Amino acid sequence: MKGLFVLPMFLSCFLVIAKCYHEGREFISHLEKLKRVRHSKSKRSISSFTEHSVPVYMAPHQVGLKEANKIVMLPGQPKVNFDHYSGYVTVNPEEGRALFYYFTESQDSSTKPLVLWLNGGPGCSSLAGGAMIELGPFRVNPDGETLYHNKHSWNKLANILFLESPAGVGFSYSNTSVNYGDKQTAADSYTFLVNWFERFPEYKTRDFYIAGESYAGHYVPQLASLILRNNKVTNQTVIKLKGIAIGNAEIDFEDELSGIYDFFWTHALVSDEDHKEIESNCDFSSGNSVSKACNEVLDRVDAAVGKVYAYDIYAPLCSSSSSNNSSASGFDPCSGNYVFSYLNKPQVQKALHANVTGIPGPWDTCNNTIYPSWNDMPDSILPTIKELMASGIRVWIYSGDTDGRVPVTSTRYSMVKLGAKVGGYVVEYLNVTFVSIRGAGHFVPSYQPQRALMLISSFLEGKLPPPPYVHCYGGRGFDPLGKLLNTRKTKRSFNYVSKDVLTEYSPVYIAPQDGLKEADKITILPGQPIVNFTQYSENGPFRVNPDGKTLWYNKYAWNNVANVLFLESPAGVGFSYSNTTSDYVTGDKRTAADSYTFLVNWLERFPEYKTRDFFMTGESYAGHYVPQLADLILQNNKITNQTVINLKGIAIGNAYIDYTDRWAGTFDHYWTSALISDETHQGIVQNCNFTSDATESEACWDYQAKADEEKGSVFTYDIYAPLCGSSSTAPSLSNFDPCSDEYVFYYLNTPQVQKALHANTTGVSGPWEGCNFAIHDDWQDEPDTVLPIIKKLMGSGISVWIYSGDTDNIIPVTTTRYSMAKLGAQVKTPWYPWYSQGEVGGYVVGYQNVTFVTIRGAGHFVPMASVQCYGRKGKDPLGEFIKVQRTKSASSHIEDSSDEYSPVYVAPQDGLKKADHILILPGQPQVSFSQYSGYVTVDPKAGRALFYWFTESEDSSTKPLVLWLNGGPGCSSIGNGAMTELGPFRVNPDGKTLWHNKNSWNSLANILFLESPAGVGFSYSNTTSDYVTGDRRTAADSYTFLVNWLERFPEYKTRDFYITGESYAGHYAPQLAQLILNNNKITNQTVINLKGIAIGNAYIDYEDEMSGMYDYFWTHALISDEHHNAILNNCNFSTMASVTEKCQESTDEADDDIGDVFFYDIYAPLCGSNSTSPSLSQYDPCSDDYVFTYLNTPEVQKALHANVTGTPGPWDSCNDFIFYNWNDEPETVLPVIKELMASGISVWIYSGDTDGRVPVTTSRYSLNKLGTQVKTPWYPWYNQGEVGGYAVEYQNVTFVTIRGAGHFVPSYQPERAFTFFSSFLEGKLPPTQT
């Protein structure tokens, strides 16, 4: 960004003047350039002040000043139980230079250290930034008059001293000109401290720390260095400096610049090309090395980024017109405005003992005159930091990871220069500590106050931030499978179970079972809802409520489709037990044998199940249990006279089945999921041989430990799930409560529950637990792989399914796929998406004798992540149309209109306007404009008539006339354009009433919606063959409609006229415009005053549509590399005729990859969802359903004067018959668009950038074919202070993108679409500021 290197303005924009968000861009750009120049001219060292000590000015009279500085009460302040002070300390009486401070003591001030806080700039106020917005005890309310308490204030932990430095910043002043620079600032700050200690002598021996952010990356180390040197050589006050902490700190010019643009690139704020240009043209090794060519590139790149808030790239901007001023952190981005108002109130300044000299002009957060006069600024402060590291004081460097101004990338580069290598969120080096604060921007305590408080607490205590404490299943403290696998590394592996579990048969113990079934029957469990099935000691149908006492019914319980038997095995697990302690030292072999014995006996107790089909399922280490037990069953079925178990299949989920694959797959998954660093992953790849645990080296273990540390407290069993105990409201991919295991613990340890379950009859010592860790610590046999057993089962004829939740990280899908490859089975059914309730449920591939299934959005415990319904897949009329046209010979005759004019049918129109007037629509809110609808006959002989709906503007006589056309071909402009996009009304979910669309385009123009051709919506023909139509007749009928409609509404004959539309209207609009212009020249009938056209996400060129669509799919990760490459290799889209069968196969495969994604807006939910998943817009995806119901209501049709002929069947949004029988369609309308460009009318092409049907890629390919010169280069345009999209003006054509909008732009981004449409009508480019 252009303000990236000029901190004097950063808080001015952030904290104070709202217009900086809208108008400050060029000013910031100017300052950034100035800073680059200053770096090239400024002195490179400030070593002169470290050579010897200069006597420090000591004011003679500090007695009594402390009491004079005490603040009685600030205006609008809540009551507090600590003291605070503010006032001036003179640092140079000869020049009249005095610095202002604000000091907030802690409640127990006598026991707490003293911390000095410095904001940066240079030239910005610590009172406004640090005290009032970040870490001070108060924040200002939006009224600008009152304060509220900041519960995360740092004065809970220390006595905090805020200093406005140098003179000229905030309330600090000088009576003479100041020689601004690093050296003078450090000297004055030191003089301030020495004198302040005389005023507050009780702090002279207190531990002292300096903290700050941004350009305080210079201030703090330099002041610390000066203190340490003067402590050695002065007879004055010795300051007890213990440490420094600097946040998002500017400490090295090279690292800052390279880090910023690398951060921008990795966060998708700049293009590949621009990033490469920076790398090619810029040498940031010093200020002198930044060339003119580099600066030009940086200026262009900064401009291209648009108004993203560089200090927190995910934060909103302050804007009084915005409907949403909140950020993810809850921080109000307009806080600076409130502080500005507050600190400029005379009563506030009086209470603060501030502005005693009457500083001219209002107080401001930054002094923009200081920076241009700054006369010394070293390129790097790293030598000073190294000096401090060697001194023995504590040095902490922290970084909010969403800051783009001094990003974490810059800090990490500097850490490397210090001789450190960063590998995680917190890393402690020799003499320096680096901490990142997740989700925080440049002003860390503002954006993440709780995390910042924890940071400063750790810093003051000299301890690293606390390690994660997670008590839920799969957290760092409770990971049974992980513990088992780690325990194995200290033992030798036993592999004998990979052979047959039993090669010799031993008779199985069978106990008498008479009467035990009835004894086991559960009457009712405590807190259980009423059910209509019988249950014994199995409780899968229920989940435990948070009260730990009652149950709720799991509607996805597997006993809906089968009788489900849950077994706690081996002995020692859950309620299972043994009277012999040595039994708890067990392993795979005994577990299989005991489970088999259980089954034989259980079938005697429940003999009705002996001949029933039997399946086994399980997860995790059941990847051993299930195959081994299945193998034992099959073997014993052959050799025993006892019960034959009718085993039909097994299914194992996120299953531990192979040691090598488990470890290799896990760390590969860590890396692909961005949980660990490149370096650590490379270390594992290079140092680890996972063929068995015996082959792992110490270096390998070290890298694994490092990976676990880097990963942090991510819930390993579902990396996108929240943690139990967290207060976070962040969305999860499932509705599973991560604290469920706690509720279960309490429930199953309730005596009445155990009694109802007939459990713990022997009085098992200690409470029931979810896992028995003593068992896995003493596990005695576990093969490295059970793949040989699985292969044997595959050969046995039983069904073998392996499934994987794709967000699990303990046995990730990567691991399972590696194991599937080892099975070496041939593919029978290729990879495809499977569905649950209309949503992609996951993906499946059928191999010879084994099936692999993924469950989308599920973690390790797949059934817990119930699949939500996002609804049905939407229609794709344009896609279907293009496929149909491939089978036909495409016509291109519409590229040039005929110069021969045929007289247009014009019917008498007397009285029809009045007849078409709509009094009121059913369920319509009151409006202050007129509306009309009805039919216009375009061919009386064929009985062909087109239906329209016309919504006038409130001041209709002054506004232009705009025709709107939807595409398809064959789709309704009433049901789509008018009712769901840009019309004045939208339909409520009841399908009966309407609500007003405040962004309706009839606020700006009189809008005419036309259903064309005949057969679309309410338009009709009495001649069936008319429904076999095409581009030519559609243009001709639309023209005839217009000529007749203007006779019906003659007041619009001379009005400026525009044509707009989307999708296949990329054909309709240009062709109709061309016909109008031609007929205007040669007819004596109505001359239509055509001024321009605007077409959105427009289908205008077949080649560009197809290649652009699949390129868009690939760049947005919707299709595989293989299928995209196949399209590139097999497809020639230059004409429809050139599309081969092999190309068709490649595109079909790519289409299958996508699954049920609504690619008219690839980020939108589908209709039917009860999900709370966020969407980029608030548009209701079921709106089409409401419109369908509404327009098929008889009283609505009557009010619209529609369906007067009684059209058979209901009104529908699109007519499939029409596009299946379309008989002429040129493969490109670019020649027509070129003709329109040359005619002098306005031609605009716009594109919603989340549409996958006619994506922005397609539109840009077509614009390149137009070959026109750029007039106004690409720039971001704005709506309500946010980037609304991007625009570029060419010679005679303008291209505009609408950010966050899909195919139906006004539906998804109504405010941005409104701003775009206003610009189009005014003939002005979209606004560069708002």
From TrEMBL:
It is found in: Secreted. It is an enzyme of class 3 (hydrolase). GO terms for biological process: proteolysis. InterPro entries: AB_hydrolase_fold, Peptidase_S10, Ser_caboxypep_his_AS, Ser_caboxypep_ser_AS. It comes from the Eukaryota. One of its GO terms (molecular function) is serine-type carboxypeptidase activity. The keyword Cell inner membrane does not apply. Its EC number is 3.4.16.-. Residues 1-20 form the signal peptide. Keywords: Carboxypeptidase, Disulfide bond, Glycoprotein, Hydrolase, Protease, Secreted, Signal. One of its GO terms (cellular component) is extracellular region. Belongs to the peptidase S10 family. PANTHER family: CARBOXYPEPTIDASE (PTHR11802:SF460), SERINE PROTEASE FAMILY S10 SERINE CARBOXYPEPTIDASE (PTHR11802). This is Carboxypeptidase. The lineage of its organism: Eukaryota, Viridiplantae, Streptophyta, Embryophyta, Tracheophyta.
